[in-house]
Amino acid sequence: METTSARSLAVLVGDLATDRPPRYAALAGRIRRLVADGRVPLGTRLPAERQLATALAVSRATVTAAYTRLREDGWATARQGAGTFAALPAGPHRGAWVPGPADDDAIDLAHAAPAAPAAVPAALAAALEELPRFLATHGYHPAGLPDLRARIAARYTARGLPTTPEQVLVTNGALHGVSIGFAGLLRRGQRVLVEQPSYPNALQAARALGARVVPVALDPDEPAAWLDAAERTLSAVRPAAAYLMPDFQNPTGVLLDAAGRERLAGALRRGGVPAVVDETVAELGLDAAAPPPLAAFGPGLLSVGTLSKVAWGGLRVGWVRAEADVVRRLTAVAVRTSMSGPVVEQLAACALLDGLDGSLQAWREQLRERRSVLTAELRQRLPDWRVPAPAGGLVLWCGLPSLRSRAVSSGFAPLLVEPADPPLGLGSLAEPALAAVPPPLEPPVPPAAPARAAPAEPDVIWAPGRSTEQVLALVREARRQFPDRPAVVVRAPAETLVALASEHDAYTTVDAASMSAAVGPLPEPVGSIGVLCGAGGDLAVAAEAAFAARVTGTAVLRVDDVGGSRFRAGLSGDALPEDADCLVVVAGLDASLAGLLGVLTDLPIVAVPTSTGQPGSFGGFSALLTLLNSASPGVVVSNIDNGHAAGVFAARIARRSHRRG
Ligand SMILES: Cc1ncc(COP(=O)(O)O)c(C=O)c1O
Q1: Domain count, the chain
Q2: Domain carrying residue 33
Q3: Is 199 in the pocket of ligand 1 (CB under 6 A)?
């Protein structure tokens, strides 16, 4: 466990007098930033309140209140009798992507959720005037208020897709509509084709039904390649459904033109694949209006819309547009969980739709202005970022040259935090998922090996940030505590490896490709793993995984550069070492590989996102999101660039399943 002394934390915190009072909130804010950018590593024990108060020359009550604030906000946890430890807010649930509470200090760039325009209170006032008409009835309208269905239908007709009110089901927002669409189309184990990246909550909704997500990479610089790949995947994989955003796709902003819609609808029709088409921002074209809805180009398509982005998310009014018989079936699905939408909000929605053309004009004008301010500032201040100007929608999807870029480490690192609830807790708190954080001012104190029951395999000792002497001391301690198993040292410079080999000459196994060493007797291998990697740039991480697995007690069948394109084209399982007990997939350049492999094999997969070759994105962070979004059941996702942790974990799975099998 890392600790930080009161003195060194006080240095990192700096002068609180320059911050807005109250003092305790300023202190909590400073510590929160230090945790977010990694200078106070996760799991670090914070100093005792009295000591920190002395070091900062503030009252103890100030520190107590600051720690309380940190705990309440999830940036620290308290363990009875042990102290207060740095943590990341757990967020809601894994994969859920919801706006956090408003924070005066931070601009939340993760959510495209506008504040309500003046038209919203006016519409609600108008709704209250209308309400008496409905009060004498039961108030339930499972498919939506007839007046609202008629207005939504008229809007589709005006956009080029003739629609009757019977073809409209009113929902509690777009996500509800998407979920109802999925519930109508997908069964457990079936596949759903999605763009990658995509809207995480929709993918979670598909997974909640037991569906397998099949991602097709969408590169905003090469949208045509997506169409090619989608056509191939539709015919090769034959998914049960697709989830698509042809209108200013979230998050890439890509707009599919009319010819592209023709092609896509044709491919869906030929494959007999129905689709849920999320049109959440379809009416927010800033440079040009979107072509007619995708459903105008082919049959079997459910269009989902919402007032959340053209008016206000707080209304919770959305809809699904489909054939009338499909709407009847979907209404039956909807009433399983909610009998009807609220009458007042639906009446307000009618008023908003009546004035929508006018209010949209003003809203688009504002969005154009915001887009130009934001893009100009970003281009000027962060010249090495790729800053697009999307033709519509609410999202700017920027490309970072590298997580190590000057701009990231100097200015933006505090904004980058690990996604909520990392799916695979490998216990290596000393190795944050985002590697490009500024270094601590003082080298971390080498943690003493904790006394505990003998673990199943050795801990991995990370060399970066530690001197050779510190690594040697940790290895000695590990060898003393666990003489019958090796201590594994990773990412060590050559001189540390040489020093290890000289001190423990009879016992040291060194792997040059991964700059790693194992000191001690290697265990008899039980079971085996296969290591696959999608591209040459990831070979070092693949070597790390192979090494860690071998020295922690399993055989390694092969390290293979399988080439993402080969997999994509063939979608064949021939190259898989099916006699392995577990696969490690290192997939930076081709992050969706793990998802595809998950479809092809029942073997458990440990996927490692990497930051190599990710120039147009948040480096490994983007690969991590890709994997989280695309992982099938049976795929677990490791930390970014952490081949060793993946190797240890895969070896554990392999040994267990080999013994069982
Ligand atoms: C693509 C997409 N679909 C659905 C939603 C959810 O919309 P609603 O608030 O209408 O449920 C969002 C919200 O950001 C979104 O971006």
Answers
A1: 3
A2: 6-86
A3: yes
